[in-house]
Amino acid sequence: MDKTAFLGLMSGTSMDGIDAVLVSFSDHTLTLHATHTQAYPDTLRQRLTRLSQNQGSPDDLGELDHQLGCLFGEAARQVLEKSPLSAVDVAAIGSHGQTVRHQPKCKTPFSIQLGDPNIIVEATGIPTVADFRRRDIAAGGEGAPLVPAFHRAYFGQSNEDRCILNIGGIANISWLSGDNSDDASGFDTGPGNGLMDAWCLHQTGRHYDENGRWANEGRIDQNLLSDMLSDGYFAQQAPKSTGKEKFNLDWIQTMLNRHPEVRPADVQRTLLELTVITIVRQLPQSSPQLKIYACGGGVKNSVLMAELQKACLPFSVHSTQELGLDPQWVEATAFAWLAKQTLLKLPGNVPKVTGAIGNRILGAIYWP
Questions:
Q1: Most-buried pick from 8, 33, 169, 195 (CB within 10 A)?
Q2: pLDDT at 284
Q3: Is the pTM of this model over 0.85?
Q4: Where do the domains of the chain lie, and which CATH numbers do they carry?
């Protein structure tokens, strides 16, 4: 394989749109050629949210798979138009797809991502790698998180312990030991922006709380917070992963049934604190010199980041921008890298992270 450019497509648990990157990899460096974000129409977001909560039909599944395939294909075309490269320069597209259901611990484990890769290939003429999670699940793993392998490859640094913190709809951490560059661990800590976004939309009609301003108007309700923290997920040992099928508006309403007196703004502030605490409690405590590098949409919430920095002391919280990659594009870049791994017949999972019985080559390749 002589081409070094790969295209990554990522839509996370926030379900707000598709991040697309065109990137070249060389040794332990990368070059970002172009980026693009393809927003989801409101009606599509609503249908995806319902489907993620098991409210849909087989027709919904098929229709949304097709619609998302078209949108992912369009996102790929748009990022190519913004770059100095053309389709013939790209070795492959790595498409995460849109997760609508993630159940790795049920009797018949599965994870479903929509966004038909056949349509992406037809739209671009570029080989497309998709369906990354199910091979790891077939090998006994959670199928998530998958980004720690990329974090280890490009953010790992000898003599410095690092934690890469991704705050999307769900938050996850990758722990990178400075003593052993091959060592990496990680898991989903719990809700990132997802619960705050769901409550904000329910109460205000806005899809998110810009800069945490509404949360900043409220106060933490300690009784509600204690009830939320008693959820069994937070006490589970890794490997573990979760999604909107668990942490959603219904989860909030169940909690509020026991605390009906809490003001809406106080609920928002309490949800923000829940995100902070469930991240901080699960950070590795063995390294006094740990540096935390944050990425994902949560980095744009200044109140969240300020509270996180206070709670993390004496650790310091930085942006992945300091490591050479803008926080918004880390996950899309990770799936471009995972596509490269697949084409090279190299593993893309970290068994210590997912719980799989061994290293596995991830994804299926769809050829033009």
A1: 8
A2: 78
A3: yes
A4: 5-143+328-366 (3.30.420.40), 148-323 (3.30.420.40)
